[in-house]
Amino acid sequence: MREKLAERISVYSHTPPDIPSIQLGLLNANWTGIVRSVPYWKRMYEDKRVPKEFFSLDEYAHAISPTSRSMVQQRMAEMMSAESPAQWYRISGGSTAEPIRIPAWKSEVEHTLFDMWTARSWYGIEPDARIFLLWGHSHLLGKGIKGWINGRKRVLNDYLLGYMRFSAYDLCQENMKEAGRELLRFRPDCIIGYSVALDLFAQANEHLSGAFSSLCLKAAVGAAENFPFANSRARLQSVLSCPVSMEYGSIETGLIAHYHPDGYYKVFWKSYLVEAVPSTVLPNAFRILVTSLYPRCFPLIRYELGDEIDYSNNHSPNKQGSIIFFQNVLGRCNGYVVLPGGALIHSLVFSIAIKSTSEIRAYQVIQEGDEIKLNYLSDTVIGKGAEAEIRSFLQAVNGELASVNIRRVESLERTIAGKTSLLIRR
Question: pTM of the full predicted structure?
Fold first, then answer.
């Protein structure tokens, strides 16, 4: 592993001028397999609607229309490779509120794993580092013998890896204070967590900043969402006395980019071609389209994640159809619901609860006072068994979630900008 990691670190240690040319070569090599083994793209090629290869990234952008989540949901079977069966599934709900189940091969994780450790190396974090995870713990909530076995496997794997996992599902102040005490006991090299959870962790543990400084943490890394406030990063850095970084990616992709110590996001351009398309909503913002440049069971072809980014003056979009750096990811903050007993439940809990219910196309959590509604879109009302499974998971997280009103609706509420928020609190 160390030899491969050293090679990947070397690749991203500089920014060669011929990156678009390198990406074009990777794209065409990947495209050959796609038009041969993916039914949808094979048919498009046979109908002469797409070329055999591309002579520039600009040609690629003009020849291929963006792929939306709804298109993926509708055409999943014909957009996956017939070359080899799926070995696992990427199950996403997340901040887009549109669950999606994407087939994958184990080799995909092996490929992107080196990008992740390359990013962490920028902060001196090595693969044998002790890591404190302020994260989900759905593996401990499984039912029956299989759930118990999976939970024990996860606990054992964390132990062997040198990880400690503290639940970020309930974000109330007392839980975050307990996380602070556990962090001091565990004495890790770094902390990684949901960004909203890290912000609340910092607020609850300002009184421990002196003790935290003795840990000499190498970094705190936010993931899954943006920090909720403009001063979140500075507050976390002050409380933990360490640099604060951020992962950028999705369940569908894995890691796409990572915040660099020099103050910008750096794209892993040998794994993904990232294009910037001017936003139709926000001035000086860009929607991003993602194309995978390595073999995948479900290739991403100009896939629209639904995120928007902006640039600093030093990292403006180029004319070659590819971006390497950007300044910020806009929006993308999940938040939490507040239960009558005082618990603050991270909204990602609902994403995990519904992820196995394939009938649900999109969903939204609405809190009005003490009432919490889980609204969803589907062709028909989900079965009693599926609803019971969702409710069982929510109840396992916190008993007060047992009364959540789960209902099918005709449409979800949208923002003025036309987007569907995962969580609305009134």
Answer: 0.82
Would you state the torsion angle of the CA atoms of residues 219, 165, 170, 336, taken in this order, to the nearest 10 degrees? 50
Closest C-alpha to 358, from 172, 100, 3, 113: 100
Domain end (from 242, 262, 287): 242
Would 136 be classed as within a structural domain? Answer: yes
Residue that finishes a domain, picked among 278, 306, 330 = 330
CA angle, 146 then 397 then 240, to 5°:
110
- Rounded to whole angstroms, what are the CA distances from 36 to 39, 43, 76, 293? 8, 9, 17, 16
The domain of 217 spans: 124-242
Tell me if 64 sits within 8 A of 71, measured CB to CB: no
Span of 6-10, 106-110, 247-251, 332-336 with lowest mean pLDDT: 332-336
Write out pLDDT tens, residues 189-215.
Answer: 999 998 989 999 999 999 999 999 999
For residue 416, name the pLDDT band (cuts at 50, 70, 90): very low
Per-residue pLDDT tens for 8-55? 999 999 888 899 999 999 999 999 999 999 999 999 999 999 999 999
